[in-house]
Each structure stands twice: as C-alpha cells, then as structure tokens.
From TrEMBL:
<keyword id="KW-0564">Palmitate</keyword>
<feature type="lipid moiety-binding region" description="S-diacylglycerol cysteine">
    <location>
        <position position="23"/>
    </location>
</feature>
<keyword id="KW-0732">Signal</keyword>
<dbReference type="Pfam" id="PF03180">
    <property type="entry name" value="Lipoprotein_9"/>
</dbReference>
<dbReference type="GO" id="GO:0016020">
    <property type="term" value="C:membrane"/>
</dbReference>
<protein>
    <recommendedName>
        <fullName>Lipoprotein</fullName>
    </recommendedName>
</protein>
<comment type="similarity">
    <text>Belongs to the nlpA lipoprotein family.</text>
</comment>
<keyword id="KW-0472">Membrane</keyword>
<feature type="signal peptide">
    <location>
        <begin position="1"/>
        <end position="24"/>
    </location>
</feature>
<dbReference type="InterPro" id="IPR004872">
    <property type="entry name" value="Lipoprotein_NlpA"/>
</dbReference>
<keyword id="KW-0449">Lipoprotein</keyword>
Length: 287
C-alpha cells in the first residue's frame, strides 16, 4: 500500500513540475518579443552600415564608450551593398541603418514601400570622377566609356556631376538617367557610352572604362584616395547627399536612436572624421 501511495505522490510531483515548466516556457517566449535591453537598463541597438566610413564611425562611438555612456549597447553589422541594409531594416533584423543619403532613401521608399523615418545627415562623401587613362576631364574623347552606378538616385547624381563639368547638357531633370542621354546628340555631344555597374564594383571596372564616377565610400574601399586620385571631386556646398541614419516607423527604441544620432552629430565624432579623413574624403555635416 505504501509503495502505491509513493508512486502516486511522485507522479503528482512530476505533473506539477511539468505544469510549472510550461508556464515558465510561455513567460520566456513572451519576453523575447519585448525590446531587447542589456544589464543595467541599457538598450541594445543593432545598426547596419557600410564598412567605410559608416561602420568606422559607429565603431569609434562604441570603442570610445560614447554609446555606453548614453545607455546604448551598440552592435554594428557591416554590409557591402546598397540593398540588404534596407531589407534587413524592414524585416526587423536591424534597429537602424547608416549608409544612404536622402535621395536614395526616398527612391527606395517609393519603389519598395518601406515604412522608414530618418534623422538629418551626419556626413558627406564627395562623389568623384576617376580615370586611369586621362588626367583631366577636358581630355575625355568622343565615344568614351563611362562607368556609372545602376541605382537611379546615384546615377542622377553622377550625371549631374558631368553636367557641372560641361560634358553633358542640363536637361532640367532631378531624376535624369542614362536613357535620357543615350542617342541624344544635343545633350550628349561627345556620344559617351555609359556602362552601368553595381556601385561597389565601380573601382574594379576602372581599367575597362575611360572614366568612372564613384561613390566616396566605395572609392575608399577600392583603395582610391578621393582628394588625390579623383580628376573631379563633387562640391560639398549645398550638397543634398549627406548620409543619414534611417529607422523603422513606430520603433520602440526611438529614444535610444535619438541619443545615438545626437552622438553622431557631436563634436567628438566630427573631430574623429576630420582626423581620419583629413583631405576631405569624408566631411562632417557639423563642419
């Protein structure tokens, strides 16, 4: 009789333990949907960025303790293209990204329907025209091949630079593309041949074209020094292409993101940018 009682008691205890375990599992699952925070009440922010200069700037903020002092546990995820950082942000894998300028962000939102917000620009990377075949833009021959980005906003930016140099005629369009210039003898008097390429690959195609118009960060990643190697460098005066921090609408981490953006616009980051890129390859919007 005592053995039976003992077995029943053990079974009851086991059932109770399973019930408690199930309750505990449910609580743990629910907690994963809440905003992530680190010990001490700090907020964990995962930010996607291009390796140069964006990730370098964010890592400075992290390594110097600026993020920690603001209650932010900062994780930097690097991307080498212009597509995945916005995809990752839209899918919730990132809390923010820092790699793009406003015209590109607006084009992405219009094209893909992203529900993003953004802060003001942090820095500018002047666009440059590079060549291994000529030393001056005036040497550009008729029928020359021009390497150019295949994304609409940066393509318009590149064409605008050629317009300012007198190589192409101004069509009065903010969203001009190579389609507007191909076969247009009046607007493209040199009959330039445009070679569309993914922006990160432009430094690699430089030997195969007469000139290439390259984003500042990809020029740096490709071993180019914009201030020294570019035969034409974009002006920063009135430049609308400052790179900014974008984030998803209705984020629960907005307060922490505001603190991060305030740090990025601070004097310490401005001084770091000036010291790291003293020849104007990257220019803080604070300067």
């Amino acid at each position: 009789m005592s053995r039976i009682t003992s077995r029943v008691s053990l079974a009851a205890i086991a059932a109770a333990a399973l019930a408690l375990s199930a309750c505990g599992g449910s609580s743990s699952t629910d907690s994963t949907t809440a905003p992530e925070s680190s010990a001490g009440g700090t907020v964990r922010l995962t930010v996607g960025a291009s390796p140069v200069p964006h990730a370098e700037i964010l890592n400075f903020v992290k390594d110097q303790g600026l993020a920690e002092a603001a209650g932010i546990d900062l994780k930097v995820v690097e991307y080498t293209d212009y597509v995945q950082p916005n995809v990752a942000l839209s899918e919730g894998d990132l809390d923010a990204n820092y790699f793009q300028h406003l015209p590109y962000l607006k084009a992405e939102i219009a094209d893909k329907g992203y529900e993003f917000e953004h802060f003001e620009g942090v820095h500018i990377e002047p666009y440059g025209i590079y060549s291994q075949k000529i030393k001056n833009i005036s040497e550009l021959a008729e029928g020359a091949k021009v390497g150019i980005s295949n994304d609409p906003s940066n393509q318009a930016r590149a064409l605008s630079l050629l317009v300012k140099e007198g190589v192409l005629k101004d069509l009065g369009k903010e969203d001009a593309s190579i389609v507007d210039y191909d076969g247009n003898a009046e607007a493209n008097p040199k009959k330039l041949q445009f070679v569309e390429t993914e922006a990160p690959a432009l430094p690699r195609v430089l030997p195969d074209v007469d000139i290439a118009i390259i984003n500042g960060n990809f020029a740096l990643e490709g071993g180019l020094k914009p201030a020294e190697d570019a035969i034409v460098l974009e002006s920063v005066e009135g430049n609308p292409y400052a790179n900014l921090v974008a984030y998803a609408k209705n984020t629960e981490k907005l307060d922490a993101l505001k603190k991060l953006d305030e740090i990025l616009h601070g004097q310490e980051v401005a001084d770091f940018i000036k010291k790291t890129w003293p020849n104007g390859e990257v220019i803080s919007s604070k300067n």
